[in-house]
Amino acid sequence: MSISLYYFFQIKTYKTINFILEIDEKHKTFAKINSDIYYSLNKDSFAQFQFQDRSIRLELIKITNTKQNEFIIEFTKSLLLKPKTQIPAVLFLKDNGNFFDLFIK
Fold first, then answer.
1. Where in the sequence is the domain holding 76, given as residue range(s)?
2. Would you say which domain of life the source belongs to (predicted)?
């Protein structure tokens, strides 16, 4: 029982944002974000989406500032996705701690 309780409190919680993941004709996977989201990103941020019956995780590789208050974030490529498509996804921004921290903050 104590071992399962230990693992229960090791569950990590993340701040998340829903967004549209875009794939261009060269299989470049990217999304457009604003500065509020940009300042919440860290090196461990990643995107996750459902494709058929699988959950696919893409790592953040590059951030480009296109104009004031607009950024393009690029993710690792996935050859499972067709070019020129858009997919709803979830952006995991930062680790908020473990499950226990939700109750004490």
1. 10-96
2. Bacteria
